[in-house]
C-alpha cells in the first residue's frame, strides 16, 4: 500500500518526556519509582534498562531490585510490601513475565492501587500503559475505532486483555484470539485494526491481512539478539498505519508508565 504511516514511537515518547520533565520541575517531585526484576529474561532486562534511562532523562530516580529466579513466593511478596510502604517510593512495577513457579496474580496484588503504575491490580487508579500508548497512536493518526473490526492476537495481562477491553468499550467489534486459534488467518483477513501481543516473532505475514489495515504490534521477543514483533516487517507495505518493533509501541508504553507514576504521585500528595 502506498503512503503507509510508520509510527515513530520514540518521537512521540520524546514529546511526552519533555512534558513530564517540566512537571518534575514545576511540582518538585522527589519520589522514586521501584522496579522489581526476577530472573534473567533478556527482554525484561532491556525494558528495565529503558525505564531507568527514561527516568534519568526526566530526573526521576528508578531503583531496580533484582532477585534470583529461584526466590520463594512469600519472600518476594514481603520484599514488594517493603517497597510499597517506603515513603520515598511513589510507584512500584513488577516486571513481567515472572518465573512459572510464582503466582503472578498473588504477587501483583501485593501492590496497592495507589502505587500500581502498571495498572495490573484488581482496581487500578490509572489506565494500562499499553492502552494509553495505543490510544495516543490512534489519536495522533486519527484512526476511528467505533464499528471497526478489531482482532487482538494474544490474551495476556499486559497487552491482549486490557486492549481487547478498551477497544470493546470504544465501540469496536472485537475478536480476541491466540496464536493457536483455528483459522487465525481468516480472522485477520477481515480485520480493520489488528493488535498483536502473542510474543511469536513473524506470526503475521502480509498475505494474512487486508490492504489498508491498521496494525499495532505490541509484542516483543528476542531473535538472534534483536527485538522482534509478531508481524513480519513486510506487512507494513499493506498497512495504512504500522508500528514497527523496536521503536513503535514500546517506547510510548514506557512514557505512559511514567505518566501514570506522575498521576499517582500527585494523588498521594
UniProtKB/TrEMBL annotation:
It catalyses: (6R)-5,10-methenyltetrahydrofolate + H2O = (6R)-10-formyltetrahydrofolate + H(+); (6R)-5,10-methylene-5,6,7,8-tetrahydrofolate + NADP(+) = (6R)-5,10-methenyltetrahydrofolate + NADPH. This is Bifunctional protein FolD. It comes from Candidatus Vogelbacteria bacterium RIFOXYD1_FULL_46_19. GO terms for biological process: L-histidine biosynthetic process; methionine biosynthetic process; purine nucleotide biosynthetic process; tetrahydrofolate interconversion. It holds the Pfam family THF_DHG_CYH_C. Belongs to the tetrahydrofolate dehydrogenase/cyclohydrolase family. NADP(+) binds at residues 154-156, 220. Catalyzes the oxidation of 5,10-methylenetetrahydrofolate to 5,10-methenyltetrahydrofolate and then the hydrolysis of 5,10-methenyltetrahydrofolate to 10-formyltetrahydrofolate. The gene is folD. Its EC number is 1.5.1.5, 3.5.4.9. GO terms for molecular function: methenyltetrahydrofolate cyclohydrolase activity; methylenetetrahydrofolate dehydrogenase (NADP+) activity.
Amino acid at each position: 500500500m502506498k503512503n503507509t504511516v510508520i509510527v515513530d514511537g520514540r518521537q512521540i515518547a520524546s514529546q511526552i518526556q519533555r512534558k513530564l520533565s517540566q512537571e518534575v520541575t514545576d511540582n518538585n517531585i522527589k519520589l522514586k519509582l521501584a522496579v522489581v526484576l526476577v530472573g534473567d529474561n533478556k527482554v525484561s532486562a532491556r525494558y528495565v534498562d529503558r525505564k531507568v534511562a527514561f527516568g534519568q532523562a526526566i530526573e526521576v530516580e528508578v531503583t531496580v531490585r533484582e532477585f534470583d529466579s529461584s526466590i520463594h513466593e512469600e519472600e518476594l511478596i514481603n520484599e514488594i510490601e517493603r517497597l510499597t510502604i517506603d515513603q520515598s517510593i511513589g510507584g512500584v512495577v513488577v516486571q513481567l513475565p515472572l518465573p512459572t513457579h510464582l503466582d503472578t496474580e498473588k504477587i501483583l496484588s501485593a501492590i496497592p492501587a495507589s502505587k500500581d503504575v502498571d495498572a495490573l491490580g484488581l482496581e487500578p487508579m490509572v489506565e494500562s500503559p499499553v492502552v494509553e500508548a495505543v490510544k495516543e497512536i490512534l489519536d495522533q493518526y486519527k484512526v476511528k475505532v467505533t464499528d471497526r473490526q478489531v482482532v487482538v492476537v494474544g490474551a495476556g495481562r499486559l497487552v491482549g486483555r486490557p486492549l481487547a477491553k478498551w477497544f470493546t468499550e470504544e465501540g469496536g467489534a472485537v475478536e480476541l484470539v491466540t496464536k493457536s486459534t483455528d483459522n487465525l488467518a481468516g480472522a485477520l483477513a477481515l480485520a480493520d485494526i489488528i493488535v498483536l501481543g502473542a510474543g511469536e516473532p513473524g506470526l503475521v505475514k502480509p498475505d494474512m491481512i487486508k490492504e489498508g489495515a491498521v496494525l499495532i504490534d505490541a509484542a516483543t521477543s528476542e531473535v538472534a539478539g534483536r527485538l522482534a514483533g509478531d508481524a513480519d516487517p513486510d506487512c507494513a507495505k499493506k498497512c495504512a498505519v504500522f508500528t514497527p518493533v523496536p521503536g513503535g509501541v514500546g517506547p510510548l508504553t514506557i512514557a505512559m508508565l511514567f505518566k501514570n507514576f506522575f498521576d499517582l504521585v500527585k494523588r498521594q500528595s
